[in-house]
Write a structure and sequence with these properties.
four-stranded antiparallel beta sheet; WD40/YVTN_repeat-like_dom_sf; binds zinc ion; 10% helix; single chain; WD40_repeat_dom_sf
């Protein structure tokens, strides 16, 4: 009756059969009498069954009696071991777990040639999925452009809005171009507001910064320009929405700007990241954090509200940051996902190595959960459950790589470029890739 398990509120309810001079104490769920580091508490709470194995096999002999001091000592003893095991790299964890993920396949669905005219020279493109309209089919904006040599000198650039339209008496929809609006230069980024997917930001190669809203009234579809400005800083390498009215832009000189969006775009804060290397990509983490990846493979988890120092020029602040596990090569992709129930950050570098950082340990910043070299180096997109990585394959194919078992499959004859854009809709049902001769390819993602 003296071990950990039997000291609980249920036992307390039974009539005592033990010597009357012995007092039982109710213990709360944490059992600890000494305050322990908050970050390590979370390891014990949040991790899988193998923690239990460690506890019972190595550190909790059944004959051992319990008191508060011993318990605290025992907890202190196992924490570093669990932590060390987590840091060691736990790729093996998920290989033995029951997994209920579905099999998916890609079915070529439709090709889009925005703008109508032949755009033979258009070899790059951007696409973004907006809010869902019907039957899990979202609206879509796309823009394609010719390659760049030096400054953008392309006039007559546009973005195009496509909406899914149901074909009468048929069971399918067709993405139909309903609106095209001009932009001042070729589009470099399209970023949808995750809090209102009818609103999206666009940035051109000339640092034109647009905020648009898709409006749909009386069967009239429009893209309304909410705000516009030209950003006066170094070239933009990433754009993401932090809040419903806040956008972050990352710049090649290592700075990050936080913009407040209303009828105007107003600079709220400008950060200088303490990194000698150039920032290559950014991921906003609502409500007040962001992650930047750098050319030298660093991953910096930064705060927009905790700033450590003011540097010159005086309008620039340095955010407090935690450095995550470093990649060997430049970071090319950052995303969020949910892996085995844990919110994770997905990062991917030029060499094709993928990291997953566990977001649950908020005290010390995210911890490395999985580190895995992928069999390709092209641009990628991950499914939300991090089960599949989708990438342009050889001979214009699309490759599906299953992270759990390394299984590879291909869809042949697709339109894509080696470094082309590839965007999965938030509901995981639609994929768009491109672009070749101004034409994008849409795939339906089917469960099999
Ligand atoms: Zn251009």
């Amino acid at each position: 009756m003296d071990d950990f398990v039997e000291v609980s509120s249920k036992v307390y309810e039974f009539p005592s059969t033990i010597q009357s001079d012995k007092h039982w104490k109710l213990k709360d769920a944490s059992c600890g009498t000494e305050s322990l580091p908050a970050s390590t508490d979370q390891f014990v709470q949040a991790n899988e069954s193998r923690n239990i194995g460690i506890q019972t096999e190595k550190f909790c002999p059944p004959q051992q009696s319990c008191n508060d001091q011993q318990l605290a000592k025992w907890l202190r003893k196992i924490y570093p071991i669990i932590e060390a095991e987590l840091l060691e790299g736990v790729t093996q964890i998920y290989s033995g777990l029951e997994y209920s993920a579905v099999n998916i396949s890609l079915v070529p669905y439709q090709q889009l040639s925005p703008g109508g005219d032949s755009k033979d020279t258009h070899s790059t493109g951007k696409a973004a999925w907006l809010s869902t309209r019907l039957d899990n089919v979202p609206d879509l904006v796309v823009s394609s452009s010719p390659p760049h040599q030096g400054w953008c000198e392309h006039v007559n650039q546009t973005i195009s809005l496509y909406i899914p339209k149901r074909i009468p008496h048929e069971q399918f929809v067709v993405f139909t171009e309903v609106r095209t609006v001009p932009v001042k230069a070729c589009i470099e980024f399209l970023a949808v507001n995750a809090f209102n997917k009818n609103i999206f930001a666009g940035v051109t190669v000339a640092c034109d910064f647009y905020i648009w809203q898709h409006e749909s009234t009386n069967n009239l579809e429009d893209i309304k320009e909410i705000a516009y400005m030209t950003i006066p800083y170094a070239s933009i390498v990433g754009v993401d929405w932090l809040q419903i009215n806040e956008v972050l832009t990352a710049h090649s000189d290592g700075s990050v700007c936080l913009w407040k969006i209303s009828k105007q775009i107003v600079l709220d804060k400008r950060f200088r990241i303490n990194s000698k290397a150039a920032v290559t990509t950014i991921l906003a983490l609502h409500p007040s954090n962001f992650l930047v990846g750098t050319e030298e493979g660093r991953l910096l988890y930064c705060s927009t509200v905790q700033t450590t120092t003011y540097t010159k020029p005086s309008d620039v602040t340095e955010p407090a940051y935690v450095e995550l596990e470093k990649h060997t090569f430049a970071i090319t992709y950052l995303s969020k996902g949910n892996f085995n129930g844990a919110d994770v950050i997905i990062s991917y570098d030029l060499s094709g190595e993928l990291f997953l950082h566990d977001m649950r340990n908020s005290e010390d910043g995210p911890l490395l959960l999985i580190r895995m070299p992928l069999p390709f180096k092209n641009s990628i997109v991950c499914s939300k459950d991090v089960e599949y990585v989708i990438s342009p394959g050889k001979n214009k194919s699309i490759e599906l790589f299953r992270l759990r078992n390394g299984q590879r499959s291909y869809v042949k004859g697709s339109l894509t470029e080696k470094e082309g854009p590839i965007r999965l809709s938030d509901n995981g049902c639609w994929l768009i890739t491109g672009v070749q001769n101004g034409t994008f390819q849409i795939f339906a993602v089917k469960e099999t």
